Amino acid sequence: MSAVAKSPSEAPKGIPRPSPAALNAAAASFAALTARLDYLSAEDTDLVRRAYRFADEAHLGQLRNSGEPYITHPIAVAAQCAEWKLDAQALMAALLHDAIEDCGVTKSELIERFGAPVAELVDGLTKLDKLQFNTREENQAESFRKMLLAMARDVRVILVKLADRTHNMRTLADAPREKWARISGETLEIYAPIAYRLGLNQTYRELQELSFRHMKPWRYSILSKAVSKARGRRRDLIQKVQKEVETAFGEASMSVRLAGREKTLYSIYRKMEDKHLSFAQVTDIYGFRLILPNVISCYTGLGILHQMYKPLPGKFKDHIAIAKLNGYQSLHTTLVGPANVNVEFQLRTEAMNVVAESGVAAHWLYKAAEPSTASSDRLGTKWLQSLLDIQDETRDAAEFWDHVKVDLFPDAVYVFTPKSQIMALPRGATVVDFAYAIHSNIGDHTSAARINGDQVPLRTELKNGDVVEVITAPVSTPNPAWLGFVRTGRARSKIRHYLKTLAHVESEGLGEKLLAQALRAEGLGKLPADDAEHQTLWDKLLRFTGSRTRAELLTDIGLGKRVASIVAKRLMALLAERGEKPDALMLSRERFTAHETVSQGAVLLDGSENSSVRFALCCRPIPGDGIVGYLGHGEGLVVHTEPCGVGQRLRYKDSERFFAVEWADDPVRSFETGVVITVRNDKGVLARVASTLADAEADIKHVEMADETPQDSTDLRFVISVRDLAHLEVALRAVKRTPSVLSAARTVPIA
């Protein structure tokens, strides 16, 4: 825990007590920070001083809960960062970290005064400050920790944030008491584990201790008194162990630095809680840390200790061979000391001690005495490993921090629901992925979305910390275009399942229309009903086609997997066996109609058919065109214009797959068609043509220009959406009257 400064009342006798105003002035001055900046160059120190002056002016008149000038907080945060030997940019960000949030200073102003790197650090800290952790579930706390780390592309942001939280916890007693539990709980669940992950063990322990003191003040007080009493009783014992260890290592001619280590009150409390122990049963309250010259000395020293005292079974851990995830390395052993008191020993090298106490913040400062190949292979995670590799290669702080601007979770993005639940999604995930991650029903009916309160397109990629709100509507359904931008397998499979189900339903309806039309050509007015009277008939037909159900048969016809005319002929044969005969009048009318492809039973198209009917891109038919329908193999009904060369070739090869189709009287939507407009290469001609089409209510879906070398004229090719042939003619006439337009015509179908 941190040392507590003496209050004025504790000043020695005979020395005048400084006034509160004088103490505040001293704490608020740059001199409070100067002594800690001896590792910086004069130029860097001057930059930090400039940031201090700006922050001091920005926070002028603001006070903390204690009554101190607000600037004392940024100075304390910067002082903590200086203890970790962070660079000048990080210290400047520490001094300015509340400027955007509390003082109305803009990011652009910081860029202008202090440069983009410092402004980015301050902006990152401001974004972290805006996050609110409102839920207590353990998995949510873990997600929140990951989100904080993921949001801070630069590790210095997290380090300054930890320094900020540490000072806030040190001064939490000045805050309203009702805030203690919430802030302490958040610190314990979020910030202390992050300090541990980054290897800041001293900060990790202090945050735990301060949180425990304010969350459970009564238990903290009781434990504190118990430890104090135990310390007094065992002082002689500890001194005896220390003397014996120093003597044993001296006789072995081994250099060792011995330091006492006392278990924190919070760790004692956790051990009592987790293992249901009384205070008297917690035996490893005291311990020693041995700092040795190298790794071999650590293992040799372990042997010396085990010769002196009996080791406790199951209490030896080798964190040198197998480091902890945060890079921590040490040998741990618990021995039975004098008077049968258990004493824990930790053995480590100086390099390991630096990593253990200051973590990532001190890596670049410490040059390991051991060969890098011997030490680096045993350090925890790949990330920390890479940092040590970098510090072996360069002693330059600026270059080191440039290397650690990394995303600790490159494959994940963490976002909030409106109720502050955290959701982890793959990097690049969109609003639609988020909707399906909540529930497939929400995904299926997504119609719009807001991110951080702003309306956004559904294809918008999510960023760490976004608050995402999905707006649903009962009439909304998945769009096939969503498959082009969703990233999660869940969203993709749900969309495909919906579209596949929808396609089958629509194909069944189309198949029923096509079979009914084919039956009219055979002299039967309508499809036999699906009832008990006709059950035997349908069973025989299904055996003939190999289909399992009537719906499957009709779907196969709609998808083009079966030919309606063949099924119709078989159905008529089965009806004939029952004694039913075709209608002679209908038969003759269907067979001797004026046009061989048009019949009274033609399939009507109004644009609502969705996936079961496609309009061919080669000719792009629109209402008013003469059309024919081709039932492709497994692709539903494809509609061509009658003059279309592609359609004519298909009819020549596969005439039995062509069906009569007609436009409904009132189509429910507009249809796309192509036009080519030849224009002079005048300034602004494209804008004029586009404006004319818009005025004619023809929506432009696509436009492209010829790639040839610029000439006096060029062709503009548009795909536009119109209601029918008459609407197209109106639009083309309007375009022809536009200045610089030489000609305008519909794209000619492929021959």
User: What would you call the shape?
Assistant: elongated
Global structural class: alpha+beta
- Overall average residue pLDDT: 78
CATH C-level category of the largest domain: Mainly Alpha
Radius of gyration: 40 Å
Strand order of the largest sheet: 1-2-5-4-3
Assign the CATH superfamily of the largest domain. Answer: Hypothetical protein af1432
Helix content: 40-55%
Named CATH topology of the largest domain: Hypothetical protein af1432
Number of strands: 20
Q: Structurally, how many domains make up the residues?
A: 5
Number of helices: 30
Span between N and C termini?
86 Å
Question: Could you explain the architecture of this structure?
Answer:
The structure is a single chain. This protein has 751 residues and is α+β, with helices and mostly antiparallel strands. It folds into five domains: 18-215, Hypothetical protein af1432 (Orthogonal Bundle); 226-403, Beta Polymerase, domain 2 (2-Layer Sandwich); 412-487, Roll (Ubiquitin-like (UB roll)), CATH 3.10.20; 497-663, no CATH class; 671-746, Alpha-Beta Plaits. 47% of the residues lie in helices and 15% in strands. It contains 30 helices and 20 strands. A five-stranded mixed beta sheet has the order 1-2-5-4-3. The chain has a four-stranded mixed beta sheet with strand order 12-14-13-15, with helices on both faces. Helix 10 packs antiparallel against helix 11 (180-197), helix 23 packs across helix 26 and helix 24 packs across helix 26. The termini are far apart.
